[in-house]
């Protein structure tokens, strides 16, 4: 397996791999979003309790799932980058972070827009919303640390260390916020029972979750290609590539 | 020469150097404490002096003020050593960098955390806390402030090579402080209701144990990145 | 189809503002990050092209001065 994987540590091969993977993710993203949004907005039945406002779930849950998924993949890439000194993994960390931050922002905005009609307030210090907000701070930390360094090589490695420190802390933060929330929770918050979700609502939700993964993949790959080009811009293969296209 | 003996000497020499330096420039110790005191004074002025209200919000205020005043000293933790090159010497020395880092964090706690613990009874009086809450405040500060020094040192190590690292460091470190804040204030809250708060202290202690083991590794790799 | 008419679809049973706010901001953020990433790539390639053109000009000028 290592012999098979090793060539992808080279920038050029990694760039080609990005190009090969990109169409698949793009198809998943475009088709999935189209089907998922139309199904979720127009065809899925209204919830008997929350009426049509529940349709926000079709973007809130996928973005929340992938905001955390992006953070864990970022941390895995960071570990690979630091342990095996693979520059491409460092670039992957930098490429995933903005996309993960965007997913987190979507989860927060949709959470607020869903909270207003359901809880009567744009923002409630609900455990999951609070954890999501802290996750956004962690993303901002990684990004601003990277951009603060003039030498992007040290910046990338510093961002990797911070990403790993963050992922070690994330479960502790999540657990503490959850625990804090049960201590202080007001009676206005009602927990929705999501386990008994009807298949007519579950299918569009699942499609949207897959579609958001596609979006995460597409944007990350595009950004990763950019980052590879940026640090290899004086190499001959990049010049050939630019001449061809 | 015995190895364990020289490890201890290395630890001690870094520790005494940092503490001596801090005591020579007394402002470094006094200013964060004054800041701590002033922040605590501002709250009753901002929200009103009713004793019941103050008792209710005192744990939060004391701990937020503690977080902020720890941040003040953190920026200087590695900066002077970075500027005069002694950080490179520490990295190049035959002793493990984690050991020197541990000594530096311990020194930082001695000059920033420990005075806060010692002065905590005074702040508790100002905020109208009962004796039982006072004990809890001192205990949480005693376990919590070293944690703040450890976590903060990671941020300080990552930003030491940057010109304007101070604000960025607060941005990186403050979110990581949240669990400490939650458990410490909850312990004081619980104690004010005359309930057992050993659980929260145990969690803080567990976090401190993890930090003592893991943080020096993270700090030293951060320093290696910054110095390279 | 859950809705009788298009205006009913827009109204979302009275929750139209919140639903469309969510979907709108989601679309905006996703399109925004996609477009900025694509534009970034284009700019990079153009920068490489400009650099190559510059090097070619320098080389040519050197040859001319030697000749």
TrEMBL record, chain A:
This protein's UniProt keywords: Cell inner membrane, Cell membrane, Cytochrome c-type biogenesis, Membrane, Transmembrane, Transmembrane helix, Transport
Membrane topology, from the record: Multi-pass membrane protein
Subcellular location: Cell inner membrane; Membrane
InterPro entries: Cyt_c_assembly, Cyt_c_biogenesis_CcmC, Cyt_c_biogenesis_CcsA/CcmC
Annotated transmembrane regions: 21-44, 64-84, 91-113, 133-149, 161-181, 201-222
GO BP terms: cytochrome complex assembly
Molecular functions (GO terms): heme binding; heme transmembrane transporter activity
GO cellular component: plasma membrane
Family under the similarity heading: Belongs to the CcmC/CycZ/HelC family.
NCBIfam families: ccmC (TIGR01191)
UniProt xrefs under PANTHER family: CYTOCHROME B_B6 PROTEIN-RELATED, HEME EXPORTER PROTEIN C
Task performed by this protein: Required for the export of heme to the periplasm for the biogenesis of c-type cytochromes.
Protein name: Heme exporter protein C
Species in which this protein is naturally found: Pseudoalteromonas peptidolytica F12-50-A1
Lineage: Bacteria, Pseudomonadati, Pseudomonadota, Gammaproteobacteria, Alteromonadales
From TrEMBL, chain B:
Any one GO biological process: cytochrome c biosynthetic process
Entry keywords, A to Z: Cell inner membrane, Cell membrane, Cytochrome c-type biogenesis, Membrane, Transmembrane, Transmembrane helix, Transport
Residue ranges crossing the lipid bilayer per the database entry: 29-47, 54-74, 106-126, 138-161, 167-189, 201-223
Gene Ontology molecular-function annotations: heme transmembrane transporter activity
Domain of life: Bacteria
GO cellular component: plasma membrane
InterPro entries listed in its UniProt record: Cyt_c_biogenesis_CcmB, Cyt_c_CcmB_bac
Major localization listed first in the record, in broad terms: membrane
Keyword Glycosyltransferase: no
Keyword flag Translocase: no
Subcellular locations according to the entry: Cell inner membrane
Membrane topology, record value: Multi-pass membrane protein
Family, as annotated: Belongs to the CcmB/CycW/HelB family.
Function: Required for the export of heme to the periplasm for the biogenesis of c-type cytochromes.
Listed name of the protein: Heme exporter protein B
Organism the protein comes from: Pseudoalteromonas peptidolytica F12-50-A1
Organism phylogeny: Bacteria, Pseudomonadati, Pseudomonadota, Gammaproteobacteria, Alteromonadales
TrEMBL record, chain C:
Signal peptide start and end residues: none
Annotated transmembrane regions: 17-39
Record keywords: Cell inner membrane, Cell membrane, Cytochrome c-type biogenesis, Membrane, Transmembrane, Transmembrane helix, Transport
Superkingdom: Bacteria
InterPro entries: Haem_export_protD_CcmD, Heme_exporter_D
Coiled-coil residues: none
Subcellular location: Cell inner membrane
Membrane topology recorded in Swiss-Prot or TrEMBL: Single-pass membrane protein
Pfam families xrefs: CcmD
One Gene Ontology cellular component annotation held by this UniProt entry: plasma membrane
GO BP annotation list: cytochrome c biosynthetic process; cytochrome complex assembly; heme transport
Listed PANTHER family: HEME EXPORTER PROTEIN D
Protein family according to the UniProt entry: Belongs to the CcmD/CycX/HelD family.
Function: Required for the export of heme to the periplasm for the biogenesis of c-type cytochromes.
Protein name, per record: Heme exporter protein D
Species in which this protein is naturally found: Pseudoalteromonas peptidolytica F12-50-A1
